[in-house]
Amino acid sequence: MDRLSSRYRLAALEGDIATERDAERLRAMGIPARQILTGGACHLDARQVQKELSEARFSSFDILFIENVGNLICPTSYDLGEDFKIALLSVAEGEDKPYKYPAIFSRAKATVITKIDLLEHVEFDVEAVRTQVKTLNPEGVFLTTSARTGNGMDEWIEFLVAALNQKRRL
Amino acid sequence: MDRLSSRYRLAALEGDIATERDAERLRAMGIPARQILTGGACHLDARQVQKELSEARFSSFDILFIENVGNLICPTSYDLGEDFKIALLSVAEGEDKPYKYPAIFSRAKATVITKIDLLEHVEFDVEAVRTQVKTLNPEGVFLTTSARTGNGMDEWIEFLVAALNQKRRL
Q1: How far is B20 from chain A (nearest CA, A)?
Q2: Is the pLDDT of residue B1 over 80?
């Protein structure tokens, strides 16, 4: 985030059932962020995003991240007005998740495998997962990252910057 | 599972969006298991459980496990006819999950922290999580386990056997 925020103006909306923790963590890093609490619903909807954006009065930004409520199911079906969806899967979550939850992996512009610093401690065959994701979504980008070691962050940032530049050219 | 299945007759219903993988894994271990595929729904309901049980014709069992679709939200609200719910949280999922998803942790008879073999590789303060869970659910049991090392499995089996014995006395 530091590397991206030094070059681009970032903002974030964080979806959760309860607690402001995610937004607080981002604000502590200097990134304007608002928490949307659903109370119990398993996803955000476009109306919540619109309401929060209008109340937030973020100064202008280059990239808005919307972190939906954490699960691989409900967020899939709702268009929040985003340019694209990203699916995150940590290596500790098990290597058959794409086939178990095909909708989100089929629709995501990129699948980002996270916590690859744990790879030597868990059973997670990255190439098997890549094959599953490519089967579901041949056009999708497949990235592997570790926020802890920084591994793969160059490629993730390149992906975001390329998407931003493409949108600006449109 | 081996240690439990040598003493008790087990059976399982496995909920997922897609794939028979979980049920197949259990059947490979000799445990009668049926997969319920929701297609896209984020939880099981009691009707699906009833239908599957009547079609499964399991021989009689002592303990039926129902693994709901994997998320901390939707399964909370549905009574499947179970005796009690168990909340599972792996140490790789982050230590603020109970406060973010209070409903399931408030209602579970036990919270089982899984994958504690990864504790030295992730930021997860077990005592902080125990405090969160106990705040939400003072009566709930709190267990820590690793399926890989077997750590904590004695206490988990004791918990299940005690619950079974209590039900038989009623």
Answers
A1: 9
A2: no
Cβ <8 Å between A71 and B42 = yes
Query: B2 or B62: which carries more pLDDT confidence?
Result: B62
pTM check: above 0.90 = yes
Q: Quick check: A19 and B121 CB within 8 A?
A: no
Classify residue B162 by burial, with Cβ atoms within 10 Å: 0-12, 13-18, 19+. exposed
Mean pLDDT computed over A113-140: 98
- Residue B3 is predicted with a pLDDT of 84
Q: Given A69, A96, A121, which is nearest B21 (Cβ)?
A: A96
Q: Is the pLDDT of residue A1 over 80?
A: no
A42 to B74: CB separation less than 8 angstroms, yes or no: yes
When pLDDT is averaged across residues B27-33 and rounded to a whole number, the result is 96
> How far apart (Å, rounded) are the C-alpha atoms in residues A20 and A144?
28
Q: What is the mean pLDDT of chain A?
A: 96
Distance to chain A for B166, nearest Cα, Å: 32
- Angle, vertex CA A119, rays to CA B72 and CA A113, nearest 5: 55
Mean pLDDT score of chain B, rounded to an integer? 96
Using a CB-CB distance cutoff of 8 angstroms, which residues of chain B are in contact with residue A92? 90, 92-93, 115, 118
What residue of B is the nearest CA neighbor of A118? Answer: B121
Q: CB under 8 Å to A21, separation ≥6 — which residues?
A: B96, B99, B100
CB distance A53 to A82 below 8 Å: no
Instruction: Look at residues B113, B40, B120, B44 and name the one whose alpha carbon lies nearest to residue B77.
Output: B44
CA distances to A15, A78, A116, B87, B103 from A23, rounded to whole Å, are 9, 22, 24, 25, 21
